[in-house]
Design goal:
With 142 residues, this protein is an alpha+beta fold. The chain has six helices and five strands; from the N terminus they run ββαβααααββα. Helix content is 56%, strand content 23%. It has a three-stranded antiparallel β-sheet.
Length: 142
């Protein structure tokens, strides 16, 4: 089911949420979910994304895709790069977090029983490459 970001203001407070396209087109009863607070869905997406980046099949798939551009890249380097992203996440500026989310996530499907994330392979390889470059530079500087 498709959702769109929107917001409303009450006084000086901004309330952000996602609203179902069905609700927008056909009214409040058209969708079981209807509206979801933006902070709830965004936190769930980030938590799931962080877990996916540790999944062995994601690491291997990223490594295989990245080898086309970086022939000497090892699976261990990809794993180490993606492992570095998780503890680094909370230190990033919100704009950088948003950039990474846009690079990594192609689509988020929301249903009554949870969410499903479709990742962008090119985004994963790009992030792994960026993190690998940073790691190499840090080793040279040390």
């Amino acid at each position: 089911m498709a959702f769109s970001p929107t917001h409303t203001r009450k006084g000086h407070r901004l309330y952000r949420y996602y609203v179902s396209q069905a609700v927008l087109k056909r009214g409040a009863g058209a969708c079981v979910v209807g509206r979801v607070a933006a902070s709830e869905i965004e936190t769930a997406v980030i938590d799931q994304l962080r877990g996916l980046l540790r999944a062995p099949e994601i690491i291997v798939g990223t490594w295989r895709a990245a080898r086309a551009d970086i022939s000497d890249l090892t699976e261990t380097e990809v794993r180490d790069a993606l492992d570095r992203l998780d503890p680094l996440w909370d230190e990033l500026f919100p704009a950088e977090q948003a950039r990474i989310v846009q690079l990594l996530i192609e689509r988020v499907d929301l249903a009554v029983n949870g969410i499903a994330i479709r990742l962008r392979t090119k985004g994963l390889t790009g992030i792994a490459s960026e993190l690998r470059t940073i790691e190499v530079q840090e080793r040279k500087a040390a």
